[in-house]
Amino acid sequence: MLRDKEMKIEEISAATSLSQYAVKVLLEASLSIGTVLVDPEKDTYSLSKVGWFLLNDPATRVNVDFVHDVNYEGFFRLEEALNEGRPAGLEHFGDWPTIYEALSSLPDQVKRSWFGFDHFYSNSSFDEALEIVFSLHPSRILDVGGNTGLWARQCVAYDPKVEVTIIDLPQQLEMMRKAVAGSAGADRIHGRPMNMLSPDAAFPDDLDPDVIWMSQFLDCFSEEEILSILTRISKIMRPETRLCIMETFWDRQRFEPAAFCLTMTSLYFTVMANGNSKMYHSDDMIRLIDAASLEVESIHDGLGQGHSILICKTK
Ligand SMILES: C[S@@+](CC[C@H](N)C(=O)[O-])C[C@H]1O[C@@H](n2cnc3c(N)ncnc32)[C@H](O)[C@@H]1O
């Protein structure tokens, strides 16, 4: 339906091939939630502003697709997940300990919506993040949880010399290699498989990165796991190394609906992702950074759709 187009029930029914009964119940529900307007004199309906944004705002689209395709059915298991601390809803798709092992095997539509959601948020901040990260003049970047290599590709395109090594689960590195193949600078993108949840898994000490990059990564873990990862990462940091943590902190948003989206996203982590992680308050993250013998040197807020970058160094 076009924003300024008014249509009668019969016209909508003809355009959608739905019965007039079906159109009527949907329109009445839409009136109640404010997505359509009615002109009682002409007996016509049109989209409201809210309805127009629901259909056209890119953030709303990725959020709605994510809720519908990834979460909706699994959320029947919310109570179980809260009680047991495991992603009970993930069983809707199969048998994996967390959604990260599942990503490469999810049904296509679910995969599209998961990656659409993930990439939309991180991508929106990459341009500003590149300026911040490259102001540190890195020669070697370690991209922890680098997923399909989107950030790595932007880095090698931004700087003709920089080398980027992605650490992630083996399944993700396979997807990454296919995704970066043939792109400019792909020979400077490397992969190291690692399951960071294994508390004994040490980060590689032969890479000597100047910048360690973690984007939308630490929110995949519980506080205990974050502390373990940060403690292990601190062991490969020199005094000059900078750890850049890019996250969406719900307390550092400019607009209340953004904080709403983030606290609701925490419930996806509870039921579908892993049962124990969340979108964090920045105070909690800074406390964990401190406990890992690191300190926050500076904070950049308001990137893209609401990211912050915490730049950290060893104490
Ligand atoms: C939410 S995605 C973020 C991807 C990317 N950095 C971005 O900004 O869009 C989190 C990444 O962490 C990886 N990850 C999650 N658990 C992991 C684990 N136990 N070991 C290694 N990587 C893991 C996932 O495979 C995924 O690529």
What does this structure look like?
This protein is of the alpha/beta class and 315 residues long. The chain folds into two domains: 9-55, Winged helix-like DNA-binding domain superfamily/Winged helix DNA-binding domain (Arc Repressor Mutant, subunit A), CATH 1.10.10.10; 58-314, Vaccinia Virus protein VP39 (Rossmann fold), CATH 3.40.50.150. The protein is built from twelve helices and nine strands. It has helices spanning 9-16, 20-33, 49-56, 58-71, 78-84, 99-102, 108-134, 150-158, 170-180, 223-234, 256-273, 282-291; strands spanning 36-39, 44-47, 140-144, 163-168, 189-193, 211-215, 242-247, 294-303, 307-314. The strands form two sheets. The protein has a seven-stranded mixed beta sheet, sandwiched between helices. The termini are far apart. Bound molecules: S-adenosylmethionine.
